[in-house]
């Protein structure tokens, strides 16, 4: 029952996605969501914000209820983790590849995906565009879940896109 409730809550946040986000592909064993945003700041400034998720992550998409508890160690093996009051913690993802100011690759399961036999790879890239930067992301998820993966793909797309939109919004 708890999995279904978490899934429904996760789906409820799907509608915050910008037009540049989409479910790129979906099937019984996985899905891919992608998106992009042009930002009026150089890649170096966007990168500095990207590796500080507490600056832009929505607290509603954290286990602790406070995005201020989220950290990212920007190095191979680094943790995108969250401290939970009372001595708890959560590992959201692990850094598997990094090229400062241009590419961040992390492996892990976000939100209710953690309770399933799923894993994903989130790749975030930055490239210069004029005076600013283009932020692009792809989250590819695969494995087994107790619910149909094509049904949750739009919700995951919405949540990832919301965080990237919030990151871009730091530079408005």
List the helices and strands and how they pair.
Elements: H1 2-12, E1 22-27, E2 30-39, H2 43-50, E3 70-72, E4 79-84, E5 88-99, E6 103-108, E7 117-129, E8 132-144, H3 149-169
Helix pairs in contact: 1-3
Descriptive account of the structure:
This protein has 172 residues and is α+β, with helices and mostly antiparallel strands. The protein has one domain (2-169): Alpha-D-Glucose-1,6-Bisphosphate, Chain A, domain 4 (2-Layer Sandwich). Helices cover 23% and strands 40% of the residues. The protein has 3 helices and 8 strands, in the order αββαββββββα. The protein has helices at residues 2-12, 43-50, 149-169; strands at 22-27, 30-39, 70-72, 79-84, 88-99, 103-108, 117-129, 132-144. The protein has an 8-stranded antiparallel β-sheet, covered by helices on one side. Strand 5 (88-99) and strand 6 (103-108) form a beta hairpin. Helix 1 crosses helix 3.
The helix/strand order is: HEEHEEEEEEH
Contiguous runs where pLDDT drops below 50 for at least 5 residues: 1-19
| Spatial order of strands in the largest sheet | 1-2-8-7-6-5-4-3
The general outline is globular
Helix percent reads 10-25%
In the residues, how many domains can be counted?
Answer: 1
The count of β-strands is 8
Q: Biggest β-sheet: count, sense, barrel?
A: 8 strands, antiparallel
Question: Any idea of the CATH topology?
Answer: Alpha-D-Glucose-1,6-Bisphosphate, Chain A, domain 4
How many H/I helices?
Answer: 3
The CATH architecture would be 2-Layer Sandwich
Fourth-tier CATH superfamily name: START domain
First CA to last CA: what distance?
41 Å
From the alpha carbons, calculate the radius of gyration and give it in angstroms: 15 Å
